[in-house]
Write a structure and sequence with these properties.
Layout (H helix, E strand, L loop, with lengths): L3 H23 L5 H11 L3 E5 L7 H14 L2 E6 L2 H15 L4 E4 L4 E2 L5 E5 H10 L7 E6 L12 H9 L5 E6 L5 H12 L2 E5 L7 E7 L2 E4 L4 H5 L8 H12 L19 H7 L38 H10 L5 E4 L3 H13 L7 H14 L13 H10 L1 E4 L5 H12 L5 E4 L13 E4 L3 E3 L4 E3 L2 H8 L11 E6 L6 H9 L13 H11 L1 H8 L3 H30 L7 H35 L5 E5 L5 E7 L12 E4 L4 E3 L13 E2 L11 H14 L17 H16 L8 H28 L2 H16 L11 H6 L7 H9 L8 H12 L16 H23 L13 H8 L4 H5 L6 H21 L3 H14 L11
Helix pairs in contact: 1-2, 2-3, 5-6, 12-14, 13-14, 13-15, 16-17, 18-19, 20-24, 21-23, 28-29, 28-30, 28-32, 28-33, 32-33
Amino acid sequence: MSSPADRYAASRRRSGAELTTFATSVGFELDPFQIEGCEAVEAGHGVLVAAPTGAGKTIVGEFAVHLALVRGQKAFYTTPIKALSNQKYHELAARYGHDNVGLLTGDTSVNGEAPVVVMTTEVLRNMIYAGSTTLDTLAFVVMDEVHYLADRFRGAVWEEVIIHLPRSVQVISLSATVSNAEEFGDWLAEVRGGTEVIVSEVRPVPLWQHMQVGRDVHDLFVDELGAADGSPAKVNPELLDAIRDRVRSGGGDGPSHGGRGGPSGRGGHAGRGGRGGRDRHSGRGDRDSRGRGGHNAPGPRGGGGRFGGAASRTEVIRELDRDGLLPAITFIFSRAGCDGAVGQLLGNDMRLVSERDGERNRRTVEERTASLEGEDLDVLGYHQFVEGISRGFAAHHAGMLPLFREVVEELFTAGRIRAVFATETLALGINMPARTVVLEKLVKFNGESHVEITPAEYTQLTGRAGRRGIDVEGHALVVWSRGMDPMAVAGLAQTRTYPLRSSFKPTYNMAVNLVAQVGRQTAKEVLETSFAQFQADRSVVGIATQVRDQQESLQAYADAMHCHVGDFREYAALRRRITDLEKEGSRKRNSNRRAEIAMSLESLRVGDIVRLGGRRAGVALVIAPPRSYKGEQSAPTVLTEDKQVRRLTVTDLDGPLTPFGRLAVPKGFNPKSVKQRSDLAATLRIKAPHEDAPSVRRHAKESAKGDDERLEQLRRELKSHPCHQCPEREDHARWAARWWKLKRDNSALQRKVEMRTNSVAQTFDRICTVLVQMGYLGEDGESVTELGGRLRRLYTEKDLLAAECLRGGAWKRLDPAELAAVVSMLVHEPRRDEHEAFPRMPTEGVSDAWLDMVRRWSELEDLEGVHALKQTGEPDGGLAWAVHRWASGRRLDEVLSGSDLTAGDFVRRCKQVVDLLDQVGDAAPEPHLRGVARTAVDKVMRGVVAADRLD
């Protein structure tokens, strides 16, 4: 009989056997961090792996898939976006067979009962809340790109999954490098049990940083190794000299002179090319052996420099090609810029692949797009797309048809196209590494304003450079233009602190699901285990220490301001009250003025003529009533006499508005029509009674008599106080001022502690109060009503508004195309300032449903304001006309005619409409409406919308 030691040794040998088998199958030697992660998974632990982009952390997740198949268990592999799910599905299906791998996304279901299923994270969240029996045999969940939980729009889903998965499931979390991985790992261990934290900061392929000034490329740092070991790296003085010379010469919009500024001390351009990896890309001299066309011949170099002294896109790509630094991804924070770059390369007759390879690419595109209608191709920008692909370059952005993006990803990964111009969405996890990454700018539009990219974003973008197993090193190239500071670029490249912050917040759907499953009290306790609360509680520890330290200092200050003739704290309080009252009078006058402006805006009616002051001075006509806009409660829409349509908010005006005339607004007036705007503005200029227009600066003065009397009384008390005569009064006063400041700071910190403690649970309680008032929870808040049962099946961001619309009768009379149009109002989010005050409605039924929805949203918004909850976003009808036409069978060119909507945006929104229609089909109370919703799904899911489905 074997001893316990023998049995333990045998167990250890068996436990490592599967890792050995797996490691042999991948075809390369695993890195230490990969081995450590796989060993932890095989030992039955949860794992958090944090490593740079391209380091190969997915190996640990794939090992979990391997174990599930070997053991006859089930594994889910989750990703944040559908494109990444599709890519991972194809990879796993190719390795393990299509019978063993399935795919579930918002609009695609392939072999969903397979032992391994790839899915978007939202799908798994919905399965958990639905109580899917599939979870009963689940052994592993891989959460790829788990750092996505910091996303302010969707991040909460990751925490919901981690919290609610059965404890028996091993969670393998894969994250980009974050500076607080240990904190995140501590939370995972607290909510999931034993979790190993494995952090690797080593890039498998070294990254070299460069800047291009004109046509010359310079290393960013003198010694990159300084940045790698944590010490500051010195910025290349030759780069600084080149920029100074460029600025002195007026930006250098013409061609640069002299030799290329190859990286100093590292062999110039030939050295960079030589380190690039494969022989066919090393050095300048090999370019003639690649059999490529006329782009290598002498002649024009690509249309000259761009605005700001920057090299043109053609110049940048040509220089990268000369130095053997392709394939490259150029990040341009603009969809139009990406398409424009392709047009520029085509216009300069650029070719990056041989004609033979180009024809092969063309055939691939034609095969993949064969299902598209011929008349749709022009609308989709097909001809420029296929011409660029056939020459070895393409755009990649969310405005493109998903099928086009998939083709670009496939060909670029296979090395069949060599330059891609992309928006930052490409950096969100799609496996598309390149030898070089180019950044044109370091500023992007975040939906509200233009902001500088963060060090984390810079690292995420440049992390695509360097293909493991192919390149010896990767290259990041920033194209200099006037106003760009090389020291700022160096700061972005060297920063190593990227903390992961939770974005978790309870939602209405989450609340009813949790109450239904575990009851309100237990649900509250569960939510208190969120990473958001975990971080809040940890921050409270530090704040509480500050509070105690400050309280000790307060006592010392109190001793220092002691006065022998009287109570100086009492005297100091009088001085403070006088100062505060003087400031309060000023604030009150400003506050009263803002209140008067807000009230005047709320009282405006369509047809009122007003005179504007401030930055928008002039006569204007009210064409839409007041409504909420970007947090402002009073925002009527006006037409100015110079034909501009504006939303008026309090900050736009310097005084209240008083209507001084009326002008009828024509029925059916469309503010997007230039002619209608011009006609109405002309009528306004003619008919407005200018002689009676009031001055907006004519304000009644605020009476301050009461405040003056209180101030005089306090001043008398101050002079009669014993401490007023103290010879050391001002010394005491200085200590008193410090005491008051520290006291104020200390009180603020104490309030912060109170707010952060149990903050998630407090929000959950307020949500439950709203749900009780609206009838979705029982009167005691402990049970879910029939209405709440419908809300449980609605996962849209505007979940409660969708449930309220189902509750009414406006949707019952709609046909499938009308229902699709109405549902689009709950998912459409216009870009930037595309919000329409008067959205075009296709039918009377859709118009009635729109008005009903807006009314219900307004009531809900008011209730949320009362309970201090984040208010539900306003529905938007800007897509209703297009969706109705599409669901009615119209062609894509007809649907998008006269619209700024791109084909890619339209397809993406249609898929979101389909997803919500599916939910409506499950949640609707009447069989008829459920049937209409399912028919609407079929009518929307056709043509280009269905073109990239795998089933």
